[in-house]
Task: inverse folding
């Protein structure tokens, strides 16, 4: 599922948690694949982008 992201967030780690911020939703843990370098939250459509220098 790829919705238009309402927000893009750069992160330092491949494993992140999303709770929707002000939108609010159940906390989900997401894993960014190093191949694509991105993952989109299935609840709120936030797009997480792994920084180039991230481990």
Result:
């Amino acid at each position: 599922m790829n919705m238009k992201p309402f927000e893009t967030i750069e992160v330092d780690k491949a494993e992140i948690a999303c709770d929707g911020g002000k939108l609010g939703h159940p906390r989900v843990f997401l894993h960014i694949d190093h191949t694509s370098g991105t993952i989109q939250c299935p609840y709120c459509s936030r797009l997480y982008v792994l920084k180039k220098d991230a481990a």
Remarks:
- Residues 8-50 form a domain with the HSP40/DNAj peptide-binding domain fold (CATH 2.60.260.40).
- The chain has one domain: 8-50.
- The CA atoms of residues 9 and 46 lie 7 Å apart.
- The radius of gyration is 11 Å.
